[in-house]
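Weekly structure sync, notes
Attendees: PL (lead), two postdocs, one rotation student
Agenda item 3: pending single-chain targets
PL asked that the sequence for the first pending target be pasted directly into the notes so everyone works from the same version. It is reproduced below exactly as submitted, 131 residues in total.
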Amino acid sequence: MPAAVERYFAAFNRGDAEGMLAEVSPDIEHHVNEGQVRIGREKFAEFLAHMNRCYREELTDMVIFSNADGTRAAAEFVVNGTYLATDPGLPEAKGQRYRLPGGSFFTLRDGTITRVTTYYNLKDWLRQVGG
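Predicted structure, written out during the meeting:
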């Protein structure tokens, strides 16, 4: 199992954007659920800052899978979160708590994450926060 993915998720659960950024390549491709692809560490850093402002999340029940050569990995988990600040275009944040399954897929090169794609059920999240 790729150590970079384990460190990435440990940093995520600490709310440590710098720790997450340390595991991704300068040309990271970030494919978000229901969104556009972001390319580059700077754009990924902007996304992380936005997420940390609007949400506090912890991932539990995590299982990480990888291929034999460590160039591809996937993780399944449960997102346990609190909606802290209104995200433009989404319902008003009032400290709502939510819990939903999610998954991420990774490509790695030389032990560094070059792509992360994350999926979750947006309709389920909207239902839980009152949207």
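Discussion points:
- The helical segments are 3-14, 17-21, 41-54, 122-129.
- Strands lie at 24-31, 37-39, 55-66, 72-83, 97-109, 112-120.
Action: rotation student to compare against the earlier draft before next sync.
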